[in-house]
Amino acid sequence: MKRPKICMACCPGGHFAELRLATKDIDESKFDIYWLMFKSEHLSEFLSTRKHHFVMNVIPDKKWTWVVNALQSLWYLMKERPDCIISTGSGMAYPSIFFGKFFLKCKVIYICSAADVTSPSRTPERAYGHSDLFCVQWPEMMKVFPDAKYIGVL
Fold first, then answer.
1. Per-residue pLDDT of the chain (154 residues; tens, 9 = 90+)
2. SS3 sequence, the chain?
3. Nearest CA-CA partner of 149 in 116, 112, 124
4. Best label site of 23, 109, 136, 143, fewest CB within 10 Å?
């Protein structure tokens, strides 16, 4: 029997830390999980025992980085074919969310950063319409995203 495949898409650093907290109770033996992020040396030990792929980090004022990231994201989506994408952002994860929903009809779970207290950054604004479950960590964010689920601070 095929195990459901999950793409964990996030930036290394705070987004990674929040995604690990949010998914700490997932039994990795019951799912086929892979991590998608840009390369960072401080996660090399963690990733050494897990399936992972690296994409280019996007630089907002350099549009070519978005194009490269989008092509890489699409390549890994077609290669892996996840059933679900779980993400805490940031912008480097958005192409996977968009293409995963559009081409593969993936379920998308997006968790807003705890740094977004009263107003969102760009990625949650973009991901909101593509998410099957959209979670916020502050009650104030329910005004911005009325269909979100308030989960409290991780």
1. 789 999 999 999 999 999 999 999 999 999 999 999 999 999 999 999 999 999 999 888 899 999 999 999 999 999 999 999 999 999 999 999 999 999 999 999 999 999 889 988 999 999 999 999 999 999 999 999 999 999 999 9
2. CCCCEEEEEECCCHHHHHHHHHCCCCCHHHCEEEEEECCCHHHHHHHCCCCEEECCCCECCEHHHHHHHHHHHHHHHHHHCCCEEEEEECHHHHHHHHHHHHHHCCEEEEECCCCCCCCCCHHHHHHHHHCCEEEECCHHHHCCCCCCEECCCC
3. 112
4. 143
